[in-house]
Amino acid sequence: MDDAATGVFHEPDVTERVILLMSPGRDRELLADWLEDAADYAVESASDASGLPAEYDICLLDDRALRSDRESIVEHSRDADPVYLPHVLLTTRDDESVWDVVGVDDVVSLPVGRDELHRRIENHLRTRRASLRLAEREQRLRLFRRGIEAASQGITIADAEADDTPIIYANEAFHRITGYDTDEVIGRNCRFLQGRNTDESTVETIREAMKRNAPVSAEILNYRKDGTPFWNRLDIVPIRDDEGDITHYLGFQQDVTQRKRHELRLSVLNRVLRHNFRNKMTVIKGYAERIEAGESTSEDAKRIRRAADELLQIGTQMYEFDTLVADGDAEGESFDVVEIVENEADALRRQVPRADVVTDLPDRAVVSGHPSLRAALRGFFSLFEDVSKIDLDVAVRERDGEVRLTATDRSGTLRRHGVEIVARDAETPLDHLDRLELWLLRWAVEQSSGEFEVDASDDHPTVTIHLNATEAG
């Protein structure tokens, strides 16, 4: 199908300008009158190159103008490139050397019939119109390319007609979001972004939409080159040719990890608060009723106090959560991880009679983290306060600008299933924890530009956090 017919490119509705670069005289005047009457051109005359306008569509010149103004003519053609700007010599000379003159695109031998001259002029103007359309297309393509490269969204194009629908283009934002360089992406199906916790039902939804040749939008858990997960807002649009056949798929990728994390945090907080607040208030109400009925014992008061203390602890965790969400970009604080581990380990040894807390620590290990990180570390150790037995190994190592804290629980306080939920970052109403401490630790570590890992491959779960080391203050 012709481009002009589709409306993609538009020929300007203007009269084409013909310049007569010739010596003044009757011949130039007659030629100008004829061109204006016969072909409705906008004809202008000039005696030398100084009279040439900045823009015109074709220039007819005589031998005198060629001799005196050839350099200017060549310069005009060069400035118009890549658009074709024809210069046609009208001459009575019959030697073949005129065809080799630089700056001349055609030679018309005089005398010439009007129809022949008109045909020659129109041939050159048709070529110029085509070059203008081509230049416009190239300009738009460059604009589209700059726009795609400057986009904040990842943009990919996949070949729908090739085996396994390989990616043939990926913009700079895709590299920034995923960490993959262009040469690592081209030729591969985009499923390489999927990982062990990618939801198969979401993948199937995308696959089915593509089978139906329909556009699809989904939020899917993908993985960067370094293995870190991120939530990808994915939009896929099929691209069709003039016959309606799908030739390519246009993909848009947007990192929505922060929003998904906030949504999860709010969901976790809401569920834990509702569950724990309701349970504790039920305890308080029940024992209060016993007091009113005169059936209470001293133990009832202790239970009420314990429930109230736990409610206060929930309030503290709410404050920590609020700090995480509201101060996501808060300036980091420096503190010694070793000091916190030593203090918490000593407290556990004092509080729990059967506490076997083994520490392997350097003298100091100063880190920089979110203001909530210090409290989140203490909250993690508080998980072991209300148990009858502790068997916990804690090690801290500093290397290459990183502080790594590893805690292995051998007493069963940290449930394997629970740490896996936090590791997947995927709690559901039916698959969840009843406490916030592990969540708060993970979120505080992530807000501190660190990494949170768990190893639940056996019955002794290990929690490892990686933090940025800093100089002691």
UniProtKB/TrEMBL annotation:
This is PAS domain-containing protein. CDD domains: PAS. Residues 140-213 form the PAS domain. Keywords: Chromophore, Flavoprotein, FMN, Phosphoprotein. Residues 216-268 form the PAC domain. The keyword Protease does not apply. Residues 17-125 form the Response regulatory domain. Pfam families: PAS_9. One of its GO terms (biological process) is phosphorelay signal transduction system. It comes from the Archaea. InterPro entries: CheY-like_superfamily, PAC, PAS, PAS-assoc_C, PAS-like_dom_sf, Sig_transdc_resp-reg_receiver. The modification 4-aspartylphosphate is found at residue 62.
